[in-house]
Amino acid sequence: MFLPLALLLFTIFVILPIGEAGYYSLFRWNGYGEPSKWVEFSNYVRLFKHGAFDTAVWNTFKIILVSLVIQLPLALIIALSIYKKSWTNSLFRLIFFLPYILAEVAAGLIWRFVFDGDYGVIARFTEALNTDTWYLLADKNWAFVAILVVLVWKYFGFHMMIYIAALQGVPKDLIEASKLDGASRFQAIWYVKIPLIMSGITISIFFSILGALQTFDLIMPLTGGGPSNSTHTLVSYLYTFGITRMNVGFGSAVGVVLFICCVIFAFTYQSTIMKDKK
Amino acid sequence: MASVEFKHIEKIYPGNVHTVKDFNLKINDGEFIVFLGPSGCGKSTTLRMLAGLEDISGGEILINDKVVNDLEPIERDIAMVFQSYALYPHMTVYQNIAFALRLAGLSKAEIEKKVRPVADMLELTPLLDRKPKALSGGQRQRVAMGRAMVRTPEVFLFDEPLSNLDAKLRNSMRTEIKILHKKMKKTTIYVTHDQVEAMTLADRIVILRDGKVEQVGTPSEIYHSPANKFVAGFIGSPAMNFIPIELAKDEGCWFVDISGQKLNLLGDVDDNQTATKATLGIRPCDIHITPDLLTNPLVIKGKVENLELLGSTIQLTSRLGDSQIAIEAPSSHVVNEDEVINFYIDESRLQMFSDQSGLSIYKPKAVLESVTDQ
Amino acid sequence: MFAMRKIRWGKYIFLMLVAGFVLVPMFATVLGGFKSLGELRTNPFGLPDVWEFEYYAQVFADGSIWLLMKNSLIIAFFSVLLTLIIGTMTAFTFSHIKFAGYKYIYNYFLIGMMFPAAAAILPLFLKIRDLGLLDSLSGVVIPQVAFGLGFSILLFRSFFEQLPSELFDAARVDGCSYIKFYWHVILPLSTPILATVGVFVLVASWNNYLLPLLVLNTEQQYPWTLGIMQYRGEYGIEWNRILAYVTVTITPAIVFFLFAQKYIVEGLTGGAVKG
């Protein structure tokens, strides 16, 4: 049967590479021939000392923060508004889900345009207010904010869908019972609906954090990591500093760090917060 | 003290689905009213309109002479037990019962003071820390009742609360509900499709069909004096026999022709009855196989087609013309299949219904003569 | 009752604002391709005063866009095909043929779901190069399939477990071998989950950027994700052209979504909510 084939494929292309990444990270190597320069952990040391890497790590945290504080609650509020079955609600659901299905590069380009200092919304604003053109994406302090906006735009629909499915699974007579018990709309949401969709919320947080760790396709069309390395995420950092410069050892080190973060997060999250599930 | 009144209540769903039509009813304080009827007759809808869970399309509902149409459920001072119990799965039994009190802002001590006695009364005290999924059906039902009781509302509503229980449990819960009502004496409105529940629990029964009220009366009235054929056939188990007959008057006396056999009627036929065809109704237990105990038995002959022993009773089937009839008799009597025997109809229990309107058109002599027939 | 009215209006205004947030950039993109560059500058979000069709025409002019789409389609098609075949067979093995240690191997696959392809991308790239698959479409297909296996096997297996086990017993009595059972019974019954997984693999493959970026070098092999960035690089600030291009490339995705939304939503919510 195909089990051996699947195992083979999987091992070669998934498991082995990460193991090799661990191996290569201990070398300084350009990818050709055999790795020769054993540098122990100096790749890692360099990594943690590199300002751009710090920024990348911070940016990743910012993404997670914005997701948890802005994007997910926004998705939840919207889900609570439109989860009941009706024509208009279905239309809204469709519209809000649309950004999710676009490729990240496409979304990145679309917003690159919107944010463009000469042609986009920004341009219209600055013209209307009669100020100098503002190149938002070239602004060290604001470029990442722009990226966060795009992230929320792209993914809130995804989380909204998860919440809607969970909300539709709440039995209607529980809400009626709460009405009879005297719950206001808000109290019904807080005391009944939200506790009952906890498993959906948990999953959504899980995907959100994992996704934050992997952000890349969106960064490239918008800023490429600049200006001044202020908008890098872990993966775009890996690409810019590891791959394009063929710094295999260094890039592998980044990969290993990323891998460890992901696995630690996945394991701890699964065994603690997701433990209760049947 | 709570009276409830329904004035010309209507419910129309979009698409012109007229579920409840001109429903009128006055309920006195402390009464146990049962809405009884087949599925889709509008009984649950009416109850939910009273609860405030459905909008009222027409008419007014009054609780204690106050119009409540626009009030939220909590403002109507009512509590409801749902068919599915609707217990909050993420809360313990204690929290389920206490939830309404918590929403009302009572302190923990006050809540404790109210919840404990209710839990004791329903024998839920050992279960207070459990979640609903760890409870049996009967226990969940009691939690649902506790949740309703703890709020001490003016009116209790029950929406088919026993339908999800097995037969034995249903019997014992039914008794519990009756005992509770006797103790608490609150106005109660109870919806069911089960006539046994209705007959045993109700002070008065409201029989509904297709959104209209067919009859309102005490269990005794409904059983002995059904207003129309539907009510007569709906109540009573085994069901009433319906026999098509021909009516005629001979020298001022009414008599009926049942496939050749003639019976003299002793009571009064409604004056408006002009047609000669009608439907006779008689319950299986009111057809006897001996004339003992009957004052004015009507006698017909028939062949015993089928015989079943049910323990203390036997059930026979026979044929009158094209109709099959069922007879219920004490099993002490000896009857054999294929025997042709006399059946003695208790005249005082005879019913007759118009084929056009379905209304009852006959009053037996015994009812006319005596004041009550207990 | 009046309070309800106000809440309702407030809710709709809020939803419309969000809808605007979602749709305005997309409309601007579609319309942008119809404007001249000058007009785009002065009127980025409105309807074009003059509808210029030449920019859209030019997108199609040299036919390269069709090549890009074709490449994307080929990659996606084979990714889906291989994932479905290998994934179902493997999942079938796990759900019906319980051999010693199967749990360990199953969990082994699940590990693959926990970290992104990006973490091991460098060694992966080297491996692809060393296997001679660099700059070939298979070099994109095979790793995609490998990474997608964990997720697919998970979904397939849980679906298979839900099929009544009597089916298998009945088939064995009828003398059905494992392979035949797989082919004649399991697959036909699995069409919903096949559709769902297929749609996900398709969308992920269609939108993939990083992997093709690394693996492919010759333009003729580029999928549209690489092509679009190239176009951008070529035309710099001529946003009207770029927007036209973007519109053309995202249209298939949107159309596909409208047709397949049922599966996307079901798969997403079913798998996600049930955990």
UniProtKB/TrEMBL annotation, chain C:
Q: Which PROSITE patterns match?
A: ABC_TM1 (PS50928)
Q: Which stretches are transmembrane?
A: 12-34, 73-94, 106-126, 138-160, 181-206, 242-260
The record's annotation in InterPro entries points to: MetI-like (IPR000515), MetI-like_sf (IPR035906)
Keyword Transmembrane, does the record have it? yes
Q: Where in the cell is it found?
A: Cell membrane
Biological process according to GO:
transmembrane transport
The annotated topology with respect to the bilayer is: Multi-pass membrane protein
Q: Name one Pfam family in it.
A: BPD_transp_1
Q: Which UniProt keywords apply?
A: Cell membrane, Membrane, Transmembrane, Transmembrane helix, Transport
Span of domain ABC transmembrane type-1: 69-260
Q: Return the Gene3D superfamilies for the record.
A: MetI-like
Query: Which coarse location class applies to the principal site listed for this UniProt protein?
Result: membrane
GO CC, sorted alphabetically, is:
plasma membrane
Similarity field: Belongs to the binding-protein-dependent transport system permease family.
Q: What is this protein called?
A: Carbohydrate ABC transporter membrane protein 2, CUT1 family
From what organism does this protein derive? Answer: Marinomonas polaris DSM 16579
